[in-house]
Amino acid sequence: MNKRPFRRSDQLDSLLRNEVALLLPKYFQVGRYGLLTVIDVKTAKSFDSARVYVSCLKNSHQFLEEASHKVYKLQKELDRKLKMKRVPKIIFYLDETAALTEKLDGLLEN
Predict the structure, then answer these.
(1) Is the pTM of this model over 0.85?
(2) Three-state DSSP class for 17?
(3) Is position 69 within any domain?
(4) What is the span of the domain harbouring residue 80?
């Protein structure tokens, strides 16, 4: 059985996913966007940035706009909270998987 070895980036991805998920309700109104969920985190090989894929039920593009303004405050809190020399820069992305799945389901039903 060929298993991929557990890498440091996997641990960092998991840590960032959990911490950002805990901070989202503090910085964003849940009622405005519905359910906010951190779907995945992908840290760059250089560990200087991390893509955070978020799913929200409504107003997703407004969320991205607001996230771009609030990411600095969230980043500062992560810097204080995590005991790391350098915390990767957080970059928010929308997870389009659910929308794509719905679209494909609709096409297949027709």
Answers:
(1) no
(2) helix
(3) yes
(4) 8-109
Indicate the helix (H) or strand (E) that contains 26: helix 8-27
Establish if 2 belongs to a structural domain: no
**What six digits make up the tokens of 14?**
């998991």
Residue 1 lies in a domain: no
CA–CA gap between residue 16 and residue 38 (Å, rounded): 10
Assess whether pLDDT exceeds 90 at residue 110.
Answer: no
- How is residue 46 annotated by DSSP? T
Within the chain, what is the greatest distance between any pair of CA atoms? 54
pLDDT at residue 2 greater than cutoff 60: no
Q: Give the CA distances from residue 74 to residues 7, 20, 102, in Å, rounded to whole numbers and listed in that order.
A: 25, 8, 31
Domain count, the chain: 1
Q: Half-sphere exposure of residue 13, counting CA atoms within 13 Å on the CB side?
A: 15
Residue given tokens 């996230």 in the structure block: 67
For helices 8-27 and 60-81, angle between their N-to-C axes, nearest 10 degrees:
110
Tokens of 16: 């960032």
CATH of the domain at 54: 3.30.300.20
The answer to whether position 84 is within a domain reads yes
